[in-house]
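Quick review question:
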């Protein structure tokens, strides 16, 4: 076939005597596929996304583009292509899962072909479309409606019939040069804490005053309630408050260049996490390779990079501190728990108490992870049947935070089969939306955590099943994941961002919707790489997580932070919106084409507004619909990323010039003025 094609092309060339009119075959795999965006892995050139021979329902293909939903490849045809043909389908390399995708083709932004939803085992479907007169082509693979999981998708034997050209240019319209907006912190002190902090009576109190400015710095606190003391060198406040009550204190920091003060309202009562959690989690950079040593180094890096001075203070261990069911750990002696049911740590975590003591001595908090089923998602020992012992262990070890997953609980929702945990797969998700049964395990652990003698922030990780935002508070949780796992792709960030509004009314101090971790910096365990999000996409991601009042958990390797990522994570005005004491979640108030405008009310009466451009074209407009955002009269407009006032306007008759990059954001604060 290939031989024939070359022969024909040569013939056409010879006989036409005019190269510019010559017809040729251009294979998709000959184009630069590296600019494609996709949900996982790298574009496969003549291979599947996992680098294997392309196979669809038993049929193999030598050529093509192996990708993963959500996937997009843009090609400039400039009217020089006549026809496109291919065979599409899901690669057989996926087993034990139920992927679904839809292949779509857009010509000059109009859909010109679609495969319909395809599943694993479906025979390859033929593509044959005329491209007459089309300038720009986009090959898209969507998630088929069930999330972009295991969606290994092949454009097999894909080729163009072209006229007068020998290749086509592929491109990605989103700018890729990083640029820094956050100003460097001043040398004079500035206190960056939230203005409210919650603790339960009798629980250990730990609060490190986050402050930027030259060191050495000395700290003091006025009106500290009885039972608390501040270390003047470190700014770490410790102790215990016996009585419920609200205590207004004044935090102060002083260095050679000046001084600063800030009010803090300490609320000693039932509620904790009065502002969203800020910190780091091990999963997205270390996965199963996490160890106490790496976690300790992350804590050191949080301090060394200065992130701690902006309020980042939780260091959370995710999965794999326990023994895994694969039994590969050399210290594994055949039991995952002791004779009293208390869980054993694997050899990479020899001294949990020592580890949390280290965090606490630096004013940091420590987090841990488990699942209500017999197994965690990664196949480690879960809490099923041992919830009491586990809650006690977390408290005894000194943990301040628990992320509690779902995973294998689907396999025990109707009881443990034959009393044998080994009969339960690690990934059994069924039943989570069933309110009678799906809520129970979270209440069990919530009750137990509340009985411990320390405050343990409780985060549910069941991906939003059964509208968790409606009952998470009743399970005594402080935050809950609203969606499936995030990945460092535009499709993932966009779909998670667009799914947040429905849960927004349930956010309040002590209750937060969690759209999952921040995918910036160097992420990906086993294949560490810079976030695949473009710089503007990262600004949009951080701005939206800020306006959503989302828990902010950094997922990258803190020892590999570059200047751009530090700029994203240290903007105190962007963080202040997230940590605002009113605790409202910003929602989309207006949509103009692909521009979505999110508004969040702030405690000081101001409003944060994120103009988020989800489109591939730059937005250039004169904006005047302020009443739709609930903004009236005279306003000062401040650019939060640049930390600069950019306009004073009368919103009843003046407009604001907006220039927003494709997949980018303008993040402003509006404050009423006279
Ligand atoms: C689930 C969670 C992730 C991570 C892994 C660990 O997938 O959603 O965030 O905790 O489990 O196995």
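Suggested answer, residue by residue:
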């Amino acid at each position: 076939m290939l031989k024939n094609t070359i022969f024909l092309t040569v013939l056409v060339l010879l006989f036409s005597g005019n190269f510019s009119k010559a017809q040729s075959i251009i294979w998709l795999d000959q184009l630069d596929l590296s600019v494609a965006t996709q949900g996982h892995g790298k574009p496969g050139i003549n291979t599947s996304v996992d680098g294997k021979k392309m196979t669809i329902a038993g049929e193999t293909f030598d050529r093509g583009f192996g990708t993963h939903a959500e996937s997009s490849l843009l090609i400039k045809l400039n009217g020089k292509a006549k026809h496109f043909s291919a065979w599409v389908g899901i690669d057989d390399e996926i087993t034990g899962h139920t992927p679904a995708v839809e292949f779509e083709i857009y010509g000059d932004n109009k859909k010109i072909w679609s495969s319909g939803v395809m599943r694993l085992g479906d025979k390859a479907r033929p593509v044959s479309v005329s491209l007459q007169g089309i300038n720009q082509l986009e090959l898209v693979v969507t998630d088929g409606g069930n999330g972009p999981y295991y969606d290994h998708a092949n454009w097999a034997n894909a080729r163009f019939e072209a006229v007068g050209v020998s290749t086509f240019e592929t491109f990605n319209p989103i700018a890729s040069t990083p640029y820094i907006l956050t100003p460097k912190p001043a040398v004079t002190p500035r206190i960056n804490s939230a203005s409210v902090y919650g603790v339960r009576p009798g629980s250990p109190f730990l609060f490190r005053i986050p402050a930027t400015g030259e060191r050495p710095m000395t700290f003091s606190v006025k009106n500290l309630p009885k039972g608390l003391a501040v270390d003047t060198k470190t700014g770490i406040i410790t102790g215990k408050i016996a009585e419920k009550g609200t205590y207004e204190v004044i935090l102060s920091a002083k260095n050679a260049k000046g001084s600063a003060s800030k009010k803090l309202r300490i609320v000693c009562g039932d509620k904790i996490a009065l502002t969203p959690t800020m910190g780091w989690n091990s999963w997205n950079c270390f996965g199963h390779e996490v160890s106490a040593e790496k976690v300790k180094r992350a804590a050191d890096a949080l301090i060394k990079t200065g992130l701690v001075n902006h309020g980042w203070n939780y260091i959370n261990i995710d999965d794999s501190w326990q023994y895994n069911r694969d039994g590969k750990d050399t210290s594994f002696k055949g039991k995952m728990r002791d004779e009293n049911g208390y869980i054993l740590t694997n050899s990479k975590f020899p001294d949990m108490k020592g580890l949390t003591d280290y965090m606490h001595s630096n004013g940091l908090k420590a987090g841990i992870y488990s699942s209500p089923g017999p197994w965690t998602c990664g196949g480690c020992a879960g809490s099923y049947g041992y919830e009491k012992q586990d809650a006690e262990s977390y408290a005894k070890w000194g943990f301040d935070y628990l992320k509690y997953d779902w995973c294998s609980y689907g396999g025990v929702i109707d009881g443990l089969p034959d009393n044998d945990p080994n009969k339960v797969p690690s990934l059994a998700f069924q039943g989570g939306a069933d309110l009678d049964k799906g809520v129970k395990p979270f209440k069990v652990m919530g009750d137990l955590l509340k009985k411990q003698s320390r405050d343990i922030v409780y985060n549910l990780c069941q991906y939003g099943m059964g509208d968790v935002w409606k009952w998470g508070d009743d399970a005594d949780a402080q935050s809950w994941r609203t969606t499936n796992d995030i990945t460092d792709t535009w499709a993932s960030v966009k779909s998670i961002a667009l799914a947040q509004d429905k849960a927004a009314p349930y956010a309040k101090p002590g209750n937060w919707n969690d759209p999952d971790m921040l995918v910036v910096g160097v992420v990906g365990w086993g294949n560490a790489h810079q976030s695949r999000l473009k710089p503007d996409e990262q600004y949009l991601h951080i701005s939206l997580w800020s306006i959503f009042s989302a828990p902010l958990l950094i997922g990258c390797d803190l020892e590999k932070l570059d200047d751009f990522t530090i700029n994203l994570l240290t903007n105190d005005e962007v963080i202040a919106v997230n940590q605002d004491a009113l605790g409202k979640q910003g929602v989309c108030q207006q949509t103009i084409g692909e521009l979505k405008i999110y508004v969040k009310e702030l405690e000081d009466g101001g409003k944060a507004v994120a103009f988020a451009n989800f489109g591939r074209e730059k937005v250039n407009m004169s904006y005047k619909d302020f009443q739709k955002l609930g903004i009236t009269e005279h306003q000062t407009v401040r650019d939060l990323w640049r930390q600069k006032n950019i306009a004073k306007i009368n919103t009843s008759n003046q407009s604001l010039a907006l220039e927003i990059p494709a997949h980018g954001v303008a993040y402003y604060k509006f404050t009423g003025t006279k």
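Why it works: Confidence is low (pLDDT under 50) at residues 5-19. The first strand starts at residue 23 and ends at 27.
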